[in-house]
């Protein structure tokens, strides 16, 4: 069964304390891996798309990387405004149709 | 450039009633997908519309139905509401193919 698992479920960091969020997946026919940020009461906001193992994307304090089995979202010297839930999703070819499967998210809190 | 807009933002319904949620896609997008997000969970795929037809469907019962109009806007209908239908309903738009989804801020549905 196609699955996306994110860890940890929740993470508290001090401002400036770097860390990484993990997204592991078991899907066949991977077409892309997406990272989203979701603030409370809002819809997910697109961050990155990764398509192949070894690919990396960066945006401000965030860097996403991809291997054949997992993706990492590295956050460097985070600020309180980086607090949000980070969602990982994989686009896979399932029974002839492309579908986006989300993980449950990592709730990140950055304390000042 | 307007992003994805959804209405209403909040809705309270009674068990057994029917509800219609509306979505206008981001300008230039032709594909609309609907997701259900329970509290603390990742979004779950309901269905996707392209060229006014349902193209893909997730594991949701027939009580969930939809429509896409010639201007690409879309509706999600849920009949015979259950308490378990309480969730944030997200609409996302994209260009047909592998482009990332852009989400609206959702409709918070509460069934009492």
Describe the structure.
Chain A contains no helices and 11 strands. By secondary structure, chain A is mostly beta strands. In chain A, the strands form 2 sheets. In chain A, strands 2, 4, 5, 9, 10 and 11 form a 6-stranded mixed sheet that branches. A 5-stranded antiparallel sheet of chain A has the order 1-3-8-7-6, with no helix packed on it. The N and C termini of chain A lie far apart (41 Å). The model of chain A has no long low-confidence stretch (mean pLDDT 92). In chain B, the strands form 2 sheets. In chain B, strands 2, 4, 5, 6, 9, 10 and 11 form a 7-stranded mixed sheet that branches. Chain B has a 4-stranded antiparallel sheet with strand order 1-3-8-7, with no helix packed on it. By secondary structure, chain B is mostly beta strands.
Biggest chain-to-chain interface with counts: A-B, 25 and 23 residues
What's the total count of β strands of chain A? 11
Specify the number of helices of chain A: 0
Q: Could you describe the largest sheet of chain B, including whether it forms a barrel?
A: 7 strands, mixed
How would you summarize what this structure contains?
The complex is a heterodimer of chains A (112) and B (112). Chain A is mostly beta strands and 112 residues long. Chain A is 0% helix and 63% strand.
Which key features would you list for this structure?
heterodimer, A: 112 residues, mainly beta, 6-stranded mixed beta sheet, 5-stranded antiparallel beta sheet, globular, B: 112 residues, 7-stranded mixed beta sheet, 4-stranded antiparallel beta sheet, 11 strands, 0% helix, 51% strand
Helices and strands, with pairings:
The complex is a heterodimer of chains A (112) and B (112).
Chain A: E1 3-7, E2 10-14, E3 19-26, E4 30-38, E5 45-50, E6 56-59, E7 62-66, E8 70-75, E9 84-94, E10 97-102, E11 106-111
Parallel strand pairs in A: 2-11
Antiparallel strand pairs in A: 1-3, 3-8, 4-5, 4-9, 6-7, 7-8, 9-10, 9-11
Chain B: E1 5-7, E2 10-13, E3 19-24, E4 31-37, E5 44-50, E6 53-57, E7 64-68, E8 74-78, E9 87-94, E10 102-103, E11 107-111
